[in-house]
């Protein structure tokens, strides 16, 4: 048969925030881009929605300024013990995922990115190109493919790089919004007996509530088990549907096979405990585009390790602590050693 014609530089599978950021960075670098997305049209999913202060320069590079609510720091609660730490320099921002995605879609369109509404089916590659097949029967051939299709990545599965996580240690997340004015400009984390519950203000009249815990974690019962939080949310109407994510972790042997790269959760994800997923995803997007701009895809796995290393180490440590017999002493310990807690929060803020 006649070989497929290479139509552009990069095909990006997935139009979540990280996929769209990858597309914008690629256009800024002068690469031609096509994005493929078969997900929900609003792009909503379970997500903590807190953009750490370190995300601000990346948002500026992407040319977006999504509406949201300032985040001044982090407060941890456990029973009557409370420990607070303010971000050292700039605030973060609580941003509804749909608002973030709308801003990214608009920016991508303005930059000449075409988003095809179709599902990824499979891919093949040779020494010069990679071809993606869609459920609408299209074959899209480009010099490179970037998989940005999340925790349950079909691209990663087709590359054969997904590692099975250890049995038993899986965690899950749930998220719902409530129509209530935020009572604080902090991310608040409440520890119950088996779940962490995160409150993120995302606008002047809405808070996001997320729970992380073992299989079977239930948002209502997690809230009910924390009297102070239950009282604050009493009578507040839901402002979104309940959504779930997981299981975590997702591990990949490598983030690149041939002309195919994995960016964001598809290339490996530890847990949502630190709320750093988007900052780290955007940093990976930038690193992937730098590698492809130089026609050096082989440099990406090392760059991936570099931009995710601290996140992976810190997240693994915090998850181990949250899953251990020491769980009930995390907040009292942070209260007793505020300097250590400050170091961790400052690190997350970067």
Number of helices: 10
- Which stretches of 5+ consecutive residues score pLDDT under 50? none
CA-to-CA gap between the ends? 52 Å
Strand content: 25-35%
Taking all Cα atoms into account, the compactness measure Rg is 20 Å
Helical residues, percent: 25-40%
Mean pLDDT: 91
Note the main sheet. 8 strands, mixed
Per the principal axes of the C-alpha atoms, what is the gross shape? globular
Question: Would you kindly provide a written description of the structure presented here, covering whatever features stand out?
Answer:
- The chain is 32% helix and 29% strand.
- It has helices spanning 17-28, 56-62, 97-110, 154-159, 219-224, 227-233, 277-293, 300-322, 330-336, 338-349; strands at residues 8-13, 33-37, 50-51, 69-71, 73-78, 81-86, 92-94, 114-117, 120-125, 130-134, 139-147, 162-163, 171-179, 186-191, 196-203, 206-213, 237-238, 243-248, 251-252, 256-257, 260-262.
- Helix 1 (17-28) packs parallel to helix 7 (277-293) and helix 9 (330-336) packs across helix 10 (338-349).
- The model has no long low-confidence stretch (mean pLDDT 91).
What's this, in brief?
The protein has 350 residues and is an alpha+beta fold. It is 32% helix and 29% strand. It has 10 helices and 21 strands.
């Amino acid at each position: 048969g006649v070989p497929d014609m290479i139509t552009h530089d990069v095909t990006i599978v997935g139009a979540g925030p990280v996929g769209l950021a990858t597309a914008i960075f690629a256009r800024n670098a002068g690469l031609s881009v096509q994005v493929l997305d078969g997900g929900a049209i609003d792009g909503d999913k379970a997500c903590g929605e807190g953009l750490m202060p370190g995300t601000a320069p990346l948002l500026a590079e992407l040319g977006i300024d999504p509406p949201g609510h300032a985040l001044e720091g982090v407060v941890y609660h456990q029973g009557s013990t409370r420990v607070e730490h303010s971000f050292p320099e700039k605030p973060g921002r609580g941003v509804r995922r749909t608002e973030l995605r709308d801003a990214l879609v608009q920016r991508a369109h303005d930059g000449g990115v075409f988003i095809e509404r179709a599902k990824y089916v499979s891919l093949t590659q040779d020494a010069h190109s990679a071809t993606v097949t869609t459920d609408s029967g299209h074959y899209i051939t480009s010099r490179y493919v970037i998989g940005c299709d999340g925790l349950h990545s079909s691209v990663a599965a087709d590359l054969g790089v997904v590692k099975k996580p250890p049995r038993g240690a899986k965690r899950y997340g749930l998220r719902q919004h409530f129509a209530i004015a935020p009572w604080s400009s902090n991310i608040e984390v409440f520890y119950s007996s088996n779940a962490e519950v995160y409150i993120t203000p995302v606008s002047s009249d809405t808070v996001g509530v997320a729970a992380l815990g073992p299989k079977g974690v239930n948002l209502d019962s997690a809230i009910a088990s924390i009297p102070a939080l239950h009282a604050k949310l009493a009578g507040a109407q839901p402002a979104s549907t309940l959504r779930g994510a997981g299981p975590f972790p997702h591990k990949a042997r490598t983030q690149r096979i041939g002309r195919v790269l994995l960016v964001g959760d598809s290339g490996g994800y530890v847990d949502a405990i630190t709320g750093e997923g988007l900052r780290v995803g955007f940093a990976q997007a930038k690193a992937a585009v730098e590698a492809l701009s130089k026609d050096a895809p082989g440099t990406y796995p090392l760059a991936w390790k570099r931009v995710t290393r601290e996140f992976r180490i810190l997240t693994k440590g915090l998850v181990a602590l949250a899953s251990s017999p020491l769980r009930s002493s995390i907040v009292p310990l942070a209260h007793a050693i505020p300097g250590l807690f400050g170091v961790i929060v400052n690190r997350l803020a970067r």
